[in-house]
Amino acid sequence: MLDGMFSFVLLDTRDNSFIVARDAVGITSLYIGWGLDGSIWISSELKGLNDDCEHFQCFPPGHLYSSKNGGFRRWYNPIWFSEAIPSSPYDPLVLRRAFENAVIKRLMTDVPFGVLLSGGLDSSLVASITASHLAGTKAAKQWGSQLHCFCVGLEGSPDLKAAREVADYLGTVHHEFHFTVQDGIDAIEDAIYHIETYDVTTIRASTPMFLMSRKIKALGVKMVISGEGSDEIFGGYLYFHKAPNKEEFHRETCHKIKALHQYDCLRANKSTSAWGLEARVPFLDKDFINVAMAIDPQWKMIRPEEGRIEKWVLRKAFDDEDHPYLPKHILYRQKEQFSDGVGYSWIDGLKAHAALHVTDKMMQNAEFIFPHNTPNTKEAYYYRMIFERFFPQCDRS
């Protein structure tokens, strides 16, 4: 029955026993560690365990840990988790209602909030539904019925242009934040310290989000709604074009959802939390995931000859001629990586900067310096050096 995004520890003071639990897919971050003296440590950040634990690890999503039983137990066991191939027919109205309910559920708040709007399909749908249901909420009575949206990018980036168009269409108050490649490079170390990973794609995307979150919080906003999770559920990444059959397509979406806590959820949670900002993700609503993952995956398959691009089932569900949610070209806009959407020169700038700090000789010896997950590019090596400086024990743990 547990729902929402959470990590918690419940302590029974009568016998000092405790239970630890993490939300279904790992929207929030949580780690567990063990000390040489037999102590057990729980933290929402690696840095809370790094100096005091002999061994520590990510607390698995959808699990609880009981001190009495001394082990983990999975509490989240949806049907899709077994990766059995579903057979429910695709009903666009059922999918639409499920997502609208997921967004509306996340409008329960008494703090100033807004939507992270990149101008892509996922964030634009979140903004559209939020804008149409905001008026009757408690938040609207306190903070106004006009939705605030936020976007970040390099000057002239694809996201900025698309987000501005969506904001104009929806009539939202749009906040556009610009950064330069040098601004991003200057923030890399702080970003890695807060997001606690050396994964290249995550760092590329986290840094602009980290910069944006600081500016959003400075405006007095305390919560944002974001579009993470859709690509994993619906096979939105471009490599899904290569899926040989619906069985492999479905299994890959299951694997992607199960790994979200290591990548997109980690980015969204830690980039915002670093500044005291809460990020809510309606695509990862338990009920919505159940509906979306029950659809026969043949409907999710990418069929260009039939006019079905990636995430066609989601696009079609909101393609309403009488009451359009979005302009057609936004509804059918192709997927951009967040790190690409904020500006194509961002990645080129990161690679050039890393090349100034990592020599060819350093790369030749990389397997000896970093035998675990050896970096295979200069950019990856550069991030790894920064990460190791902050978290020197993580490799052996």
UniProtKB/TrEMBL annotation:
One of its GO terms (cellular component) is cytosol. Residues 1-70 form the Glutamine amidotransferase type-2 domain. InterPro entries: Asn_synthase, Asn_Synthetase, GATase_2_dom, Ntn_hydrolases_N, Rossmann-like_a/b/a_fold. Pfam families: Asn_synthase (PF00733), GATase_7 (PF13537). Pathway: Amino-acid biosynthesis; L-asparagine biosynthesis; L-asparagine from L-aspartate (L-Gln route): step 1/1. Keywords: ATP-binding, Ligase, Nucleotide-binding. Signal peptide: none annotated. GO terms for molecular function: asparagine synthase (glutamine-hydrolyzing) activity; ATP binding. GO terms for biological process: asparagine biosynthetic process. NCBIfam families: PRK09431.1. PANTHER family: ASPARAGINE SYNTHETASE, ASPARAGINE SYNTHETASE [GLUTAMINE-HYDROLYZING] 1. This is Glutamine amidotransferase type-2 domain-containing protein. It comes from Linum tenue. The lineage of its organism: Eukaryota, Viridiplantae, Streptophyta, Embryophyta, Tracheophyta.
